[in-house]
Amino acid sequence: MFALFASGAVGPSVGLALFGAHGWTVMVWEGMTFLAVGALSLAVHSVRQQRRTSGVQNSAATGPRVAPSPAPPARAPEARDEGRRPAGGPLDFNNTSQLEWLPPPPDLGPRATPNGWDIDMQIHGKTALVTGANRGIGQAFARELAEHGATVYAAARRPELITDRGVVPIQLDVTDPATIATAVEAIGDLSILVNNAGTALAAPVLTASLADARREMEVNYLGTWAVTQAFAPALSHNGGGAVINMLSAASWLALDQAPGYAASKAAQWSLSNAMRLALRAQGTRVIGVHVGYVDTDLSAGVDQPKISPEEVARAAIKGLLEGREEVLVDEFGRRIKSALPNDIAALYSPR
To answer: Looking at the domain 102-347, which fold is it?
Structure first.
C-alpha cells in the first residue's frame, strides 16, 4: 500500500497513494496545472532573456560593451529527453524494477536556515499538534516529536483510541470547524503543526462516486487548509514555527482506479506551495513530505519493499531540522518526481 495515512481525525485509518493489494495502483498528476506552470516558466524565461539582451545593448551607451557568455556545448539527447521508456506499455507500479529507467533525482542537499533549526532550540520544550495520530504515520510522528522533547497533542476524531504515554490526546475532526476551534483554544501556543489526517475511497474514474471524491477533497485538501488557517496565528505568536504536510508521491502521477484520492493529494501539494508563500512573512516554514510504499495495516497484502511509519516520521523531522522545504522519503517518490519534466511521454504514453 502506497503512502498510507493514519486518519483517526476523520474515521478509519485509510489514506493511500498506491493500492497494490487488489492488483492495481493509483497516483495522479493535475495535467492542467502542470501545463500552466510550464507556460508561466516559458514566459518568465522570455522576459529574463529580453532583459539580458537589453542590458547588453544599453551598456554600449553607458560604458564598455559586455560580451555575452558563450553558449554551452550542445548535449546529445538522452532517452528520457525524447520521451522514450521501456517497451511494454504503461508502468506497473507493483513492479518497481520498471522505475530503473527513470532519471536519477538531483541531490539538493540541506539548505541553510536563518533561524538555526536545531533540535534543542526548535523541538525540545515546544508544542506540537499531529492530526490523524491514533495509528500509522500519525502515531509515528507523535512518538518521534515526543522523543525529541516536544509537548505533543495527538489528535483524532476518536481520541480514546490514542493510548500512547507521553502525548496528550485531543479530539479534532479536520472537516468540523467546531472541533478545530475547540482544539485551537485548548492548545494555545503552538510551534509545530503536522497535517497528517487523510482518507481514501477508491473506485475507477468512470464509475466512482462523486460524493466520495468530494469527501476526499474535504478531508485531504480542505481539511489541511482549515487546520492550518486556524493555527496560523498561534504559530506566528511563537515566532513562526513550522507546518509539516503529509503528502504522497500520488501528487505527481495519475492512474484511473482512485482518482479522487490522488487528485486530492495533488491539490494538497499545490496548497502546500501556496501556504509556503503566504506563511513565509510570519516566519512559518512549510515542509511537504512525499513517500511511496509504507508498512501499515492497509499494505499488509502488498508484496513490495516498504518503509516503516517510523522511517517516514524520522525523515520528515530530519528534513525540518536541515531546513528542507520538501522531503522525498524514499527512492520511489524521488524517481517519480524526477520524471515530471517529461511526464506525459514517460508515464502516460499508450502501449
So the answer is: Rossmann fold (3.40.50)
